Protein 1
Amino acid sequence: MLKIRLIPCLDVKDGRVVKGVQFLDLRDAGDPVEAARAYDAAGADELCFLDITASHEDRGILLDIVSRTAAECFMPLTVGGGVRTVEDIRGLLLAGADKVSINTAAVNDPNFVRDAAEKFGSQCVVVAIDAKRVSGPGEPDRWEIFTHGGRKPTGLDAIAFARKVVALGAGELLVTSMDKDGTRSGYDLALVRAISDAVPVPVVASGGVGGLDDLVAGVRDGHASAVLAASIFHFGEHTIGEAKRHMAEAGLAVRLT
Amino acid sequence: MTVAIVDYGSGNLNSAAKAFERASLESGTNERILVTSDPAEVARADRIVLPGVGAYADCRRGLDSIPGMVEAMTEGAIEKGRPFLGICVGMQLMATRGLEHAATPGLGWIGGDVAPIQPDDPSLKVPHMGWNTLHPQQDHPLTDGIPLGPEGLHAYFVHSYALQPTDEAEVVAVSAYGGPVTAMVARRNLAGTQFHPEKSQALGLRLISNFLRWRP
């Protein structure tokens, strides 16, 4: 039976984990490779690196991190942030990423998704959808795609955009609520569910996890195939093992071995 | 002893090479792991690994674009009987043909077509992506010592097409995903996994170690 995936996400800037990973007695809390190794050992189902380095010139640092992680962690690795060209994708895949997450570039030019899927296969093309609720109280739910960390509206309807990029070849969607991100109040379940139910490909829920029940809700109520979280793991509030046991006790199929 | 990982432009061989190096070290076989696009090296190798990600026809084209590569693999695997492992699309290429986009001939070493996964439960997503258990259809040296079945170890899958075997006797293991999905096949010295052993943590390293020790 296919299991629900639990994915810790590491924000990386200039080759360092943002804010650090404060658990498991890492020698260097800011070293992404060491954090990756710890999550691998802890039984994470997949790792996600999100590069938030401002400058595109520093790409070599990210590629080095991906390459060193892939050399030690024999588990799936998704890398996103600043992916703009087919060459960016090729570089990340050759370094050892299994999937590459495309965000702004897919908004600017949806055909980039098709080019990527044709060249490398849908299985490695993830489109990251950052959405904000734009419907008022009492109105039917509506979400819009935002870029630049939620600052820039695009006018694109999130559900329509999700359908479009999947039709163009995206093999997975990473859905982040910009309203919920960082709030620790749980995923935007209506958003995750609306997109999960609209597309035939797996959806990863992201943004807002504050506790283990949020992970369960992402699957049960959000219909997500995978759940992503960052701070609850990085700051040692919960281990991957605790999270999986909690999900299993709630009746979800997770990988405990 | 040399293991040739065939490099024909199909994505990431770094992970595969590193996993084989780790398994070689841990199993004490100390095989030399060689990532190569040189047909002569492949023909000479003691073991051959054919990885593959992406679309079937693209992979087939990539393989054909290296003059003499298919012949070298055939010489090693079929004429000399060297242990051969296909991974993901590499395994699918061992089949009779692939039906992704257009019908494309495979190597014809394992009988069957590679066709879209059609789960009988419409709520199941495609690609079949993530960790699934393996259900053995027969014993095989490559799964030796690996706990299988519903309570066993998991393997990492990511694919939208699967092998539909013509000969059930060539199926080593299946996974359940709205019906059985061919997870592993074998015939004599040839084996193939739909899942990625190089991404499957403990199960994967054990399977690779078994492959490095395999004397079919």
Note: The mean pLDDT of chain B is 95.
Protein 2
Amino acid sequence: MFSSKNMKLLTNPLGDSNPITVQVLGICSALAVTAKLKPAFVMAISVLVVMTLSNVIISLLRKTIPNRIRIIVQLVVIATLVILVDEVLRAFVYDVSKQLSVFVGLIITNCIIMGRLEAFALANKPWDSFLDGLGNAFGYGWILIVVAFFRELLGSGTVWGYPVLDKIGLYDIGYENNGLMILSPMALIVVGIIIWIQRSRNKDLIESN
Amino acid sequence: MKNGKLRQFVDKIKPTFDKGGKLGFLKSTFEGFETFLFVPNTVSLKGSHIRDSINLKRTMALVVIALLPAVLMGMLNTGYQHFLSQGQDVAFWSGQALWYGFIRVFPLIVVSYIVGLGTEFAVAQVKGHEINEGFLVSGMLIPLIVPVDIPLWMLAVAIVFAVMIGKEIFGGTGMNIFNVALLTRAFLFFAYPIFMSGDKIWIGGMFKGENVVDGFSGATPLAEAAAGNLDSLPSSMDMFMGYIPGSVGETSTLAILIGAFILIYTGIGSWKIMLSATVGGLLMGLLLNVFAVNPFMEVPFWQHMIMGGFAFEVVFMATDPVTATQTETGKWIYGFLIGILAILVRVINPAYPEGMMLAILFMNVFAPLIDYYVVQANIRKRLKRVTA
């Protein structure tokens, strides 16, 4: 159950085959929801739920889905799960759900989820698919949280809404928040810097032309 | 030929910095200073080369010389505006004005060079490259395009960002897509907007509210025009000479014209870009005059040339040989579009009081595309000649 092959499914997406930094998928939501830590965290959880469950469901159905209509079946599964997640968010964390607005719905079009269903769940057993979904969701989630941490800290001077920089007295000596960090171009640059660091540590990831 | 004392000294300490030497890890830094003092004696072995006395360092030094009139006028104006805001009667051409301007502007220049060169040296050391002197001009341009009251740490942060993200990750000097000085300004503009726009920041000491006389407005001519107060615009002569509030070095069109003359005479700045950008700006101004539906659009088209940073950025930024187009036909198109876009953004979009920065950065992105189509058109033309 936890063979080394299975553990690879879980750990590879965290680093060398990370969906955001290596496969460069799911960038749109990474740019849109990372201005603050809290929405980014909720988004990461939502994607985790949708990704693992849809992976398992499609894997269970894989032998009965006719090849010609597989995309629409995948979409039905994902859409159902996304609506469930959306309802739960509205019921329990209404303010965050407001902030995420349309981006929860857009999980349906998140390329990572469709990608994993197509590339993995359709050809593998439920348990493997579960691990694969979990791994990729974590790989997506930790990038989101790191980006959101820096954007919130430098852009708003807070961490999870707590005014850290104010408490240590940085504003009294003339510090100012960086307004550029709030704008989405900076999310792209922060993701770019993570990619830069990752590829300079692991030269195998650098594409050759 | 007997070597001078300095050469002997450099030769003596050289082995310390070679591979395996005590300070071997500082090789790039050492070479940077050595080639600054002496022309390197390495020669190319393959291909034919034309020898010329011009090199990167001399090109850069000439641009810095061309900037000096603007620096001087900027310092004088900084002092003049400061004393004006305090209700003191100090002449523009006076030692008092120059001294105040000097103590306000000099720290900006020092921070700009130390931080910018520091970043370049650090990157060169880490990557084991030679040090390029690409920052010599940027370091002088940056203090001239920011308001005098900008906090020094903000300037430092912006410079590190611009040099790293704008230049080093593309491969360093000569490979950058964006003009480094303008990227610094763009970073400051979007990151710290209250320090980069408004009426209070352009005059030394006014932001902190030091004894400003009642009724004194630090608004730049551009801000006045954007607000529709055409009556309170300074006279054209004042704007031409530079007796107006604004970023440090871009107020005096006269000083910039002297710089432009030096750049054109020495062949370092492209007169084609300067001319076509000016023509583009004038045409766009004329077009807006025709449709004048608000006071800003009624500003006489030629006055746009002496307001804001238009002249400065046409002469010193648009002509940047790295980020501009390389083909001669491309230079006409590139400059013309910069002129048009700058006036368009300036007048039509109230959120961006000065469109020049965005116009040039935008056209920086398109420069390779323009070059590509110019080259393709030339290939087609010559192919036709061969096959006909």
Note: The CA atoms of residues 289 and 312 of chain B lie 23 Å apart.
